Amino acid sequence: MIPQNLAGRRIAITGSTGFLGTALVERLLRSAPDCELVLIVRPGRRGADRRVERDILRNDAFDNLRSQLGADGFAEMTARRITAVAGDVTSDNLGLDAEGLAALASSDIVIHSAAVVSFDSPLDHAVEVNLLGPVRIVETLAGLGVAPHLVTVSTCYVAGSRRGRAPEEPVDASSFFVDVDWRTEVDAARRIRLDTETESRTPANLTAFRDEAHGELGAAGIPSLAAKTEQLRCRWVDDKMAEAGVARATSLGFPDAYAFTKALGEIAVAESAGDVPISVVRPAIIESAHSEPSPGWIRGFRMAEPVIISYARGLLKEFPGVPEGTVDVIPVDFVVAAICAVAARGPSDPTKVPTSCRWRRAA
What we know:
By secondary structure, this protein is of the alpha/beta class. The protein contains twelve helices and nine strands.
């Protein structure tokens, strides 16, 4: 049912270079016959095509496909079914050129998985990606005059730091949610960045950064000292922005800036959607694969793995926690399966659901 419904469809994906995105690309290529993928990636220095080849297709997630098809067959299949376009969800029109916009306009489904997932990311960075990213997608689609099914990946932690039941409902329909305007939050995050940048350039702070740089580098030349001073200044600004993110999130009942900006992102994209039908997928903490593309597969050293390995090696003797607590994680292949199922089923009937609630969630 799911492979048949996705067969031959053109699917645009953001965040394909990430952990979840890589697993999603692999599953679609392997399980959805002849579907075509439009991968919207930040080009970096080498361009979108090279980045897709280096950062996605060389990953060991594709080892089974390479083994089945052979090196030449795998290269032919990916060349035929993947279109890489340079883009960025932090830019208007997603930073797409005319060719990229045409590729997006021809897509039947758009899966938005690009996100800042760090719990302590700078507030303004989380706002630009997690909150405004999906808004820019629907605005770009509206500008193109198309309305493909948008599947956007959020998090179950949009329910906030609460006890008891957290029913699957729109964020702003929850009695727990404090009514704040997402546009005001965007403006405030940007102002805090400007104020923090200004503060970092005061004579006292610049002297402190230079002294710290000198203490680290010793008798280094002026260019090296200047570069280190600027590095320390930028780090200081990001640390202050991360503190601002935690402070604002906790003031509204969220554990961190990630959950806070994802929650406002759901509200913002629903308000901005227009004719674009939206489905929201809310996974818990995404962990290594249960079975696909291979048991235990994970991209990088992330999530709970550092804790697990440190405990196994005897480096971590104890870890604070609540004895009756639940470890709320989900294998990445379960999340990929849910995304594919939602994409295959299609959006709910928009004539039967209010615009602000036109979404479906899958855990």
